[in-house]
Specification:
There is one protein chain. By secondary structure, this protein is mainly alpha-helical. Among the domains are: 70 residues, no CATH class; 60 residues. The chain contains seven helices and no strands. The longest helix is centred in the middle third of the chain and has 65 residues. It is found in: Nucleus, Nucleolus. One of its GO terms (cellular component) is nucleolus. Its main location: nucleus.
Length: 280
Amino acid sequence: MMVADELGMRNPEHEDYEPETESEEDDEQVVKLAEPSKNVVYNWDGLFDKLRDIGLPDGLDWSHRLNIDKEEEQEVVDVNDDCARDLSFYMQALEGVRRAFLNFQSKGEPFLRPCDYYGEMVKPDTHMEKVKGRLLTEMRKIQEDAERRKARENKKLAKEVQAQKMKERAKLKKQEIESVKKWMKKRQQSGFDKEGAGGLDLAIDEDGTKPFQRSNKNRPGVSPGDRSGGKATFGGKGKGPDKKRKSREFRDSKFGFGGRKGLKKQNSAETTNDFRGFHK
């Protein structure tokens, strides 16, 4: 009881206890619309006067009115059938266009748009240039992506082809080595040894990497850096002192030993009057 009193709570059995009830209600605000006026003005003559003011004058040419009246009775169409109703509207509009076409042709008035007519566009040229540039950029990106994809595929295919060729070469090399080994084995079995073959020795390794070795023996009198094998110093073809002497003699016999040779064939008075070389 002391705790309840300290917390400010009351016992419902106490005679002074009165329960608290919330009786608050929100008042609804009703917006009332203004009632229409009962004094309605229906001026029939005034309406017809305004109609005559805005209407077209009588006797106006059809090219200024462009109205098509269809007085023919149409078949009854179900209003709930959307397809049939739209088809009826379409046929009615098509018939009106045909009549207008015939009227223009009968009057001889131009009604078709010329080929060089450019109507005003809804969007300006600057905006359309931006749209065109964006489309071209997207198209260029698509082409570049396709080219890169094709290049990757070609590179991958080239690697596969190269690997296949390497396998074929390794297989062919292995087959050749095996054939040489079989030939040597048959040769040994037939009794054709090294002495009978004149000291023929084909050293072939097991892995086939070094079937032959180059001899390190050099020719006598040939320097290690001489690629000609001593032909330049031992009178090889086209070289040596004899060849130089012959070429010098040939040039001397053809061109002489110097001096002025340009006037050797020039005529003089004596050679001009000399007719001994001519026969009568």
